[in-house]
Amino acid sequence: xxxxxxxxxxxxxxxxxxxxxxxxxxxxxxxxxxxxxxxxxxxxxxxxxxxxxxxxxxxxxxxxxxxxxxxxxxxxxxxxxxxxxxxxxxxxxxxxxxxxxxxxxxxxxxxxxxxxxxxxxxxxxxxxxxxxxxxxxxxxxxxxxxxxxxxxxxxxxxxxxxxxxxxxxxxxxxxxxxxxxxxxxxxxxxxxxxxxxxxxxxxxxxx
Length: 207
Fold this sequence. Notes:
A 4-stranded mixed sheet has the order 2-1-3-4, sandwiched between helices. The longest helix is centred in the middle third of the chain and has 18 residues. By secondary structure, it is α+β, with helices and mostly antiparallel strands. It has 10 helices and 4 strands, in the order βααβαααααααββα.
């Protein structure tokens, strides 16, 4: 059976935020038609669990020059799209926290609501979305229990779900986000959004 279209996203990446926002503005049905999959650099515990599952994580460190270029280019894109963006100042975000909280929300049918609340907090207000108070506000806005969202990063069942998500990304050869897959068609980056939308139409997913 053919896998459904997949969109690998990360709360850490502003370009992932921009790509998902552009996608859903151009195709509002996307959250219901596409499988969203969180992708982030795993901690040591998740890396060990991936190894036990005969899987791995594709690290793709970038140079300082490329990092600075991407920052400048992101600012250009935000201005071009007419969005509001606040660059976060924090450097100590525990990325497992919001991504496992998203998995918790998604299991309750509130994944899209949590996603929207989280990116507003991160990229429109510049907040640390691994901070317990901020995460509680995101959960409340998304309509889920704040205590459950805060506990998600240590919950054994959710950590198993995290391993499955990361292992699936490894199987799909995901090396960066945003990454879009539909059938045999693969697209990396915001700049490939048109190609992804065209492929969705060609394969009959989008009409």
